[in-house]
Amino acid sequence: MIGVRGLGRWFDNVHAVDNLTLDVARGEILGFLGPNGAGKSTTVKMLTGMVRPSYGAARVAGFDIASQPLEVKRRIGYVPESGALYDNLTAAEYLELVASLHHLDPPRAQLRAQELLQLFDLAEQRHRRIAEYSKGMRQKVLIAAALLHTPEVLFLDEPLTGLDANSAAIVKELLRSLAAQGKTIFFCSHILEVVERICSRIIIIDKGRTVIEGTAADICAKTGTPTLEQAFMQLTGVRDVASVTRDFLAALESS
Predict the structure, then answer these.
(1) What pTM did the predictor assign?
(2) pLDDT score of 247
């Protein structure tokens, strides 16, 4: 469902994504990890048609992201890392707008919106303006909008941001169910425990390049580490956390 070949993006003199190649199969949940600035969000923006690649090629749901961007967008759902909403609309109005952009049948779209709002415990708040919503409620609206048109492929960039434990559990179970139905999910997150639990395969990138891929168990075995978190730190050049903390506390005490 997602095929990437030698994809790259320059921003001025910064090589944000460097010759990236990957595949994601139907029904797979791919965890796409990396430290801040590694190129995760840029990759997602290229694959969703928000940013044009500097070079390389990619196909999503069978369509080329450069020459057929509208066909790609018809078939994907996208939850951005920091999504902008129309604050003057209510949740119900916003989902109605999204449905119209996707040319959905109004009665069916309204029913689907009601189901999603009920799922995320927003049904009673659906006529309140989004400006009055908490961060977590806004995130639920973004997720509902991404699912409204039953996309074939989901791109999720830190989708659990702001969600309480109950809501996060619902999203995780929903993703597993969607994958079981054959949906393809491209999942970016810094919450490694979640990635380890729900993703069938993981790719870690650093400085725009793939450094390792496989299951969480594969990555731990290849790096000789007991946890994905420790493997991630080893692969992305993070300094020894205990040592850094001790040095910081020692500096505080001596100042």
Answers:
(1) 0.93
(2) 76
